[in-house]
Every structure is written in structure tokens, then in C-alpha cells.
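The protein record now logged underneath.
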Amino acid sequence: MTIDYSLVYALIREVPKGEVASYGMIASLLPGVGPRQVARALSHLPRGVKTPWQRIIQSSGSVAERVGAERQRTLLRKDGVAFRKNGAVDWKAHRWQGPSQQWIIENDFDPNDVMELIAGWGRS
């Protein structure tokens, strides 16, 4: 199944400065999309598209070690995101709280379903 990357990008734009989401958190809100597809979408992000890609990290709280990882950490620090001594993001302080009500309505989601999904993200 081919996914529409623009849907992934639109949801990622919902993650505000100072907060982070995991690839799985984003995928959980897009039917038929998995974390690897979110990562693939971000790897194909066109230049000039205003999408805060740096705010999407691994579920462990760490930045994926790849080309651009140090730039991602720098951008996250500029966003006000704190890291623990082990290099992982402090989930308690910076976990994304979920999409806006406007996004939920525009994408024809049931707010109760979205709240249930968000509750499943856990609070590490």
C-alpha cells in the first residue's frame, strides 16, 4: 500500500516546538501506516517543505544514529527539548500531547478514538 506522504507531513506539523513524538505515535494516528513508513516519508521530505522533521524520534527517546543525527539534536535543543545524561529525550517533559482538534475534525476522526490512541502512547 502506498501512503500519501503529505498526510504524514501534515500530522508532523502538529507537533509543536518543545515537544517530540515517536515514529510510532505518528503512525498510530494514520490508518494503515507503520513507523517505518513514517521514517520513509521523512527521508523523502522535499527541500523547502516546512515540516519539523527533527521532532520525530525513536520510541526509546533517542535520535536515530544516521547522517543528520547531530543536526537533529541541535535543532531539538533550539526548540527547547532537554536530553537526559544517556542522550535520550526526557519523555515526561517533552512528549507530544496529540493533534489539535482542528486536525482531528479536518481528517474526519472521532475525537474519542484519538483520545484512546493517545492514552495508549504511555507516559514513561
In short: The longest helix spans residues 69-78. The chain is about 40% helix and 5% strand. The beta strands are 21-22, 56-57.
